[in-house]
Design brief:
Shape: elongated
Strand order of the largest sheet: 6-7-9-8-10-11-14-22
Helix content: 40-55%
Number of helices: 25
Oligomer: single chain
Largest sheet: 8 strands, mixed
């Protein structure tokens, strides 16, 4: 009759507890009494064969302990088979198989062979052949796959984290780092797997083995010969055999301990994912059999050494074994203090006997027997483990693929452009910008490793959409702002200070359409990078830029706007005026004051007279604030006759100009972007110029006009009047301009000189505020707060002239800035009509002309 409680008991014993629970060694279940029932209890081991590594053998099936262990651990051993229900590879018995090789080389008699005692040369040849079989045969290749998969989960995340860390210090090679990262991981994983397959890492245990330990510096072949006892003096064979058997069993338990270690890294990762312990059933383990000797050695080693190898033994026998009692042996230690210390270590090492003897003749209530206990062996733990492993592998692979194939870290694809905060090699700047961006990137790379760094992010359009037209003006303006940044960075980094400046690039994409995305990436970067001091740029007055300012205001990021002139750019509908936005340019309300005064009082041209009729041509596009803002302000302020003619693109622009020319207006006032200036001039020239209509434009076109006149002296065809935020004649009458032009001459010729001056002053303002803060707080622990506080009330002479930020708590527009009323005729130089300093109450243009100019 079967012993009913045996199967549920085996299931309970083989089931591994939670990872949060301390693990103890497994019991040795000894079934005795009714021998038939005891044998059937051992047969129950086969029932869990789907869920756990298992073996069932006869105690007499092997002549000695080595034979028993061979049946369990060789390449085709019972415990080395793949068990599908575990979802994990079987344990690898590297230590055990090494000892078996060493022993069987000298003791093959168990298999019926007789051989002379092998020499060292025999062992060297045998070791080479054994190592080859262990490493390169079919079953060994499965071990390679196992170990490579283990090590890859260590080195892929490690290489990914290393690449992520290095990209913070190595400018210009970010993509290269991400491409090399997986290759390095594969190489290191293969090297690591080689060490594991060859046992070079596991074999370190031999030096601390409790029996026959390997001596320091002892070659493996010599150690193998010592294990086999090839040079023993006569009469010591039996004693040595017992020690070798103990070493063999201890190695088996150590192999299992390593296979079940609960470490996440580095190479023992399957350990905590295993949800069942290995179980070995031994039938008829009566005294004198090899199976009984194996059981007794397992018990003795666990009690005497504290070895916790997780092996469950299920044994049937007619004679229950006696528990082993650990005995302390001082080992010849004479000093009482040392003897006491050794005793303390032994007490911590000794364990109670694992024997659990069960009499199968005792009756058991059926109600206490759990039905279908195998349901508790489902591999939930292994599934969680694989989810963790897949995350470890997938995360770095995904990040590497995203950085190598997509836009990369911190960048997002928008309208076929990579927008956000990231590396230039992934942003791929417009060809017009590359000479400047490459130079800045080189200056970043030249910063000495370990130097103190202040970072400034530039927010602007570094790219255009594929096939985009009429964007040369935009790119020229951006090239100008970057030229200013690069020039000041070079000057700052040449100083003797231990602080250096690094420029980050936040691409908004064409027309600032991705400004919010770039702002979000800057905000996220700022959380982990206290050295990011401020953001400069924000050149266009668009709704996307206004929202970007709002995003950065929420993270208390100082911002310096270059040429954005719409007041609403710095205004949040919920929070009001951003206290973190500092504007260099004169706002539209003041620009229109000067423009209206020019038309009404000064007179744009004697031929058109004062207060002429004006046709306003303005750009009507979604998100565009600049052109409409000027149109609305002008419409409210100008008292003369006026008409409006909106356009949305290049196709509608020519029609708008034609319609404007058909009116009785004497002035065509263009408030759109410089991108369309050439088309406006052409349409005006064919429809209005001969009728004496004068062309007037707002400040956005200044850079394009200045570049055209300066690039074609005496030959240009520009004839118009315009309002400028700076002196477009470029008199170079201060040190900042000299530094700027000197750097620009060595870098690029294609950029807006006007925008370069604003870019220079934006970075100069941040640097001066930072220097003031550094003097106040030498440790500079709160860079952004220090820069923000010291930008308030800051004044200096910059490349654009005198700059004086308001010290108001929230309104930080530069005060007293000049507006230039300028005119140019074909083939002639630009002339200044007035230098105005408008305020909320007056146009500030005075009555006198600018010295040296007549109009």
């Amino acid at each position: 009759m079967a012993y009913a409680p045996a199967y549920p008991l085996i299931v309970d014993a083989v089931r591994r507890p939670s990872p949060l629970v301390r693990e103890d060694g497994r019991p040795i279940l000894v079934f005795t009494g009714d021998l038939r029932a005891a044998d059937e209890a051992v047969d129950d081991v086969d029932k869990i064969g789907r869920w756990a590594p298992h073996a069932r053998i006869e105690a007499t099936a092997a002549p000695d302990v080595a034979g028993v262990i061979e049946k369990l651990t060789l390449r085709d051993g019972l415990l080395t088979r793949w068990v599908g229900g575990t979802l994990l590879p079987p344990p690898r018995f590297l230590l055990t198989r090494c000892i078996l090789w060493a022993w069987r080389e000298a003791h093959p008699a168990a298999s019926g062979e007789h051989r002379e005692t092998p020499t060292r040369e025999d062992y060297v040849r045998s070791h080479t052949a054994w190592r080859k079989a262990e490493t390169f045969t079919g079953p060994a290749l499965r071990s390679w796959a196992d170990y490579v998969s283990r090590t890859m989960t260590t080195w892929l995340p490690a290489s990914g984290l290393t690449a992520f860390g290095l990209q913070q210090f190595m400018d210009g090679v970010n993509l290269l780092l991400w491409l090399i990262s997986p290759a390095v991981a594969v190489v290191l994983a293969l090297l690591h797997a080689t060490l594991l397959v060859r046992g070079l890492l596991s074999y370190r245990w031999f030096r601390r083995a409790p029996y026959l330990p390997r001596r320091a510096g002892e070659p493996l072949v010599d150690y193998a010969m010592r294990i086999a006892g090839t040079e023993l003096p006569p009469g010591h064979e039996d004693e040595h055999r017992e020690q070798a058997e103990r070493l063999l069993v201890a190695a088996l338990l150590e192999d299992l301990r390593q296979a079940y270690r609960r470490r996440l890294f580095p190479w023992a990762w399957p350990g905590w994912g295993r949800h069942t312990y290995p179980v070995v059933g031994i039938k008829h383990a009566d005294p004198g059999t090899a199976g009984r000797r194996f059981v007794e050695l397992v018990e003795e080693i666990r009690v005497g050494t504290g070895q916790r190898g997780p092996l469950l033994l299920v044994v049937s026998t007619s004679v229950p074994p006696a528990a082993h009692h650990a005995r302390f042996d001082g080992g010849g230690i004479d000093a009482p203090a040392e003897l006491y210390a050794e005793w303390g270590r032994a007490m911590r090492r000794f364990q109670p006997s694992p024997y659990l003897v069960i009499d199968t003749t005792r009756p058991v209530e059926p109600a206490t027997v759990r039905r279908r206990p195998e349901r508790r062996l489902r591999p939930v733990r292994a599934m969680v483990f694989w989810a963790f492993v897949l995350t470890l592998v997938a995360a770095p692979v995904t990040v590497t693929a995203a950085n190598a194939l997509g836009c990369g870290s911190g960048l997002h694809e928008l309208a076929d452009q990579c927008v956000g905060l990231g590396s230039l090699d992934k942003i791929a700047p417009h060809a017009t910008l590359q000479p400047v961006t490459n130079k800045i990137e080189q200056q970043n790379a030249d910063i000495p490793f370990g130097a103190k760094v202040i970072k400034i992010a530039y927010l602007g359009p570094l790219t255009t959409q594929p096939g985009a037209q009429f964007k040369d003006g935009q790119m020229t303006a951006v090239a100008g702002e970057l030229t200013g940044l690069g020039a000041y960075q070079a000057e700052f980094n040449k100083s003797k200070s231990d602080w250096k400046m690094k420029v980050l690039f936040a691409n908004t994409g064409q027309d600032f359409l991705g400004a919010e995305v770039a702002a979000d990436e800057i905000a996220g970067h700022a959380k982990s990078d206290p050295s990011l001091a401020a953001v400069v740029g924000f050149a266009w007055s668009r709704d996307e830029v206004r929202r970007a300012v709002t995003r950065l205001t929420k993270v208390n990021m100082p911002m310096v706007g270059t040429v954005s002139t719409v007041h609403q750019i710095a205004v949040d509908d919920e929070r009001g005026r951003s206290p973190y936005f500092y504007r260099l340019a004169v706002v539209d309300t003041l620009q229109v004051k000067a423009t209206v005064h020019w038309l009404e009082r000064i007179g744009l041209d004697p031929a058109v007279g004062r207060r002429p009729g004006v046709a306003v041509v303005w750009q009507k596009q979604r998100g565009e604030l600049y052109s409409k803002d000027l149109r609305d302000l002008f419409w409210a302020a100008y008292q003369g006759d006026k008409t409006e003619h909106p356009f949305t693109d290049d196709a509608s622009l020519e029609a708008a100009v034609r319609d404007a020319c058909r009116t009785e207006a004497k002035v065509l006032y263009y408030t759109g972007r410089a991108d369309f200036l050439a088309m406006v001039q052409r349409a005006w020239g064919t429809s209005c110029q001969r009728a004496g209509v004068r062309l007037l434009a707002s400040d956005d076109v200044t850079g394009a006009i200045a570049n055209d006149v300066r690039g074609n002296p005496g030959k240009h065809t520009v004839t118009m009047s315009f309002v400028s935020l700076t002196d477009a004649r470029n008199p170079s009458d201060n040190q900042s301009q000299e530094v700027l032009w000197r750097w620009a001459d060595k870098t690029s010729r294609t950029f807006s000189y006007v925008h370069a001056a604003f870019g220079y002053d934006a970075v100069q303002a941040v640097a001066m505020a930072f220097n003031t803060y550094r003097n106040q707080s030498p440790d500079a622990l709160a860079v952004r707060a220090g820069v923000h506080y010291n930008l308030r009330g800051l004044n200096f002479d910059g490349a654009t002239g005198a700059v004086a930020f308001s010290s108001d708590a929230t309104d930080h527009d530069a005060q007293g800035r000049a507006i230039w009323l300028m005119t140019v005729e074909a083939g002639e130089e630009i002339k200044a009509v007035r230098e105005c300093h408008p305020t909320a109450k007056t146009h500030g243009c005075g009555e006198s002309r600018v010295a040296g100019d007549t109009t």
